[in-house]
Amino acid sequence: MPALASFDQSNSVSAPAFSARKARIHELAERLAPERDRWIARNRFFYEEDLRYLRFLVPAGARVLDLGCGTGKLLAALEPSFGVGIDFSNAMIELAREHWPELTFVVGDVEDPGLYRQLNTTFDVILMPDTIGSIDDCQATLSLLHGVCHRDSRVIVSYYSRLWEPLLAIARKVHLQMPTVRQNVLSSDDIANLLELADFEVVKKEWRQLLPRRLFGLGRLVNSYLAPLPVIRRLCLRNYVVARPFGAPLNPLPSTTVVIPCRNERGNIEAAVTRMPRFCEDLEIIFVEGHSSDDTLGEALRVQAAHPEHDIKVMTQDGKGKGDAVRKGFANARGDILMILDADLTVPPESLPKFYGAIASGKAEFVNGSRLVYPMEEDAMRILNYLANQTFSKLFTWLLNQRFTDTLCGTKVISRKHYKRLEENRRYFGEFDPFGDFDLIFGAAKMNLKVVEVPIRYASRTYGETQISRFKHGWLLLRMVVFAFRKLKALA
Known about the structure:
Number of helices: 18
Strand order of the largest sheet: 3-2-1-4-5-7-6
CATH topology of the largest domain: Rossmann fold
Strand content: 15-25%
Oligomer: single chain
Helix content: 25-40%
Radius of gyration: 25 Å
């Protein structure tokens, strides 16, 4: 724990320094500390469901700061590589240290600026599990979190829905819920607003637990398959808001690799190079050829030799499908930013600077193209495909908790650093996507990356034929909707 070596873990807070309400909260926490784990056991299913979703949000092995950690049970269950818990209750922290000696627990007030200066380190995830309800100045406290954030940190605020307050009041009266002092009245929208005022950008909002009791297995079924549905989810007990520090420009400007999967695209290979702007100082182009019948490989090698002013690499994919080609290209890329450009050039190479600008500026961590904003060239997309894309865009926006209007646009951009993390966590989804689009989209959603869409003018092909039929396209989207619901909503 070298980062906390100078932190005095024996210091304690002084209740008289608190407001009257906060002093009452502190006194209650001290008194109830020995009973805390018994209350958790009494409401075991609620806490299991809460942990199930937090494990979805927080990867094992992350550096985690838990503000308002209580007896440390949640922090330990998240299996951090480096975990620090903060609580203003001496009694709670003593129990946490006793139960979880491998973690670091500190007595401190999360509203104290000096606390964050003494921590003197940054974390991948900063948790506030219900703590925001006890804070006197939420905006000021959230602003302090920048001192323990790095560029990729995520702040996760979990809280209860005020719609449930009458039922929770009854539960406290009949001793089904631990006693509490009056809490702040905050909806998920209020929390999102406070985060934005504190210079954090909201990435995701979610609502979970329509039925916080097990009820012979019915609770898990309701929470997995009914609670996530539109409208109904707003009735759930538990709210989660995920945010990141507002993006800052990447400095120095990153290098880029453009991966171009190509199968039977001989007539488009040279244009892909000559039409591509030099939008960054260090640009690599990788053609990944897919066992073509029109000598696409030979043309790619010819273009490579004819344009020595470009850093062009040519390789043949080992398997089949665009997804396999993209993975091979990304595995061999040297750029800081990884881009996909379909070799049919229906997404014009001239639009790539906009994608680069979105990620280099810090505004995005994953950039997706959208073909459904500007008018298309005639015959660029058949009417059934267009209508299907419009319908599925709404479904995927709900499933992914971020705006997606065109999941099958071939141009997608992610940093190599984030792609490496996506690769490490790919086991959650498995090998499910032959096209590669959803492997990246679902991975970005699971990692809570900030997604931005760049509208492009979708062009008609000038060479070759489309390699996706409307029926194959539609069936893929239906499969992905079901798959996304299971993995991202039901967590099955």
